[in-house]
Amino acid sequence: MTKTTSTTPLISAHNLTCIREERVLFDELSFNINSGDIVQIEGPNGAGKTSLLRILAGLSRPYAGDVKYLNDNITHSRDEFNEALLYIGHLAGVKSELTAEENLNFNLRISGYDNHNTSDILAKVNLSGFEEALAGHLSAGQHRRTALARMWHTNCKIWILDEPFTAIDKKGVEELEKLFLTHVSNGGCVIMTTHQDMSLITEPRLRKIKLDYRFI
Ligand SMILES: Nc1ncnc2c1ncn2[C@@H]1O[C@H](COP(=O)(O)OP(=O)(O)OP(=O)(O)O)[C@@H](O)[C@H]1O
């Protein structure tokens, strides 16, 4: 890996261009995200927020440009980057035919965590008593909480979250905001999209990257 210092960005975008169906969603987009940053990707429906998050997470390739993790292109440092990355997309990786507990276990196991107390973690997202409920039978907010529960048990520094607050009630949003603040105070970063206002994390604490789509 490239030599890093305390000021090396955790993740950086270099001249990113994304084109979908002949539409330029963004071009020559560059930014650094450091330890301690909470960044909101902002823009109207269809502006390219999810597309940008997926490119930052290495799940899709940009038309041009690079994403670096600790100054190394993520295509070169794939394993190290994946170890540092927690990505929760808006489909959220929750299987309807599994229980809340089975979903959490599955998501933690594929991230390499074997030793955990699922009941304790589910209690943190207010799902005590719903451990054995099929995810397909949970309410929209409980379903989302099942997806987000893994954030309470991770060592990943980089959190990339697509619409984490969707269907979450006001108190739940505040609990998530507190979790984000704790995470970044421990050296992590959060990159997310949301159409919802936050009460604890606001500008200037919150950095915003604005996308506006246009046509070629
Ligand atoms: N794989 C793809 N192939 C073709 N078009 C795509 C693909 N992925 C996204 N798009 C298009 O790119 C545009 C941006 O989509 P994206 O999901 O990134 O927007 P968004 O800003 O996250 O929107 P929203 O706020 O509605 O979630 C949309 O018009 C979408 O149809």
Describe it for me?
There is one protein chain. The chain is α/β, with parallel strands linked by helices. The protein has a domain at 11-98 and 157-210: Rossmann fold, CATH 3.40.50. Helices cover 27% and strands 25% of the residues. The protein is built from 6 helices and 9 strands, in the order βββαββαβαααβαββ. The chain has helices spanning 49-56, 78-84, 100-110, 118-124, 140-148, 170-185, and strands spanning 11-20, 23-33, 38-42, 64-69, 72-73, 85-88, 158-162, 189-193, 206-210. A 5-stranded parallel beta sheet has the order 6-7-8-3-9. A 4-stranded antiparallel beta sheet has the order 2-1-4-5, covered by helices on one side. Helix 6 links the parallel strand 7 (158-162) and strand 8 (189-193). The radius of gyration is 17 Å and the shape is globular. The site of adenosine-5'-triphosphate (ATP) has 11 residues, from helix 1.
Per DSSP, the total helix count is: 6
Q: Averaging pLDDT over every residue, what do you get?
A: 92
Shape: globular
Q: Ions, cofactors, ligands: which are bound?
A: adenosine-5'-triphosphate
Q: What would CATH call the homologous superfamily of one domain?
A: P-loop containing nucleotide triphosphate hydrolases
By CATH, the topology of one domain is Rossmann fold
**Cα gyration radius (Å):** 17 Å
Quaternary assembly: single chain
Strand tally: 9
* Largest sheet entry: 5 strands, parallel
How are the strands ordered across the major sheet? 6-7-8-3-9
What is the string of SSEs from the N terminus onward? Answer: EEEHEEHEHHHEHEE
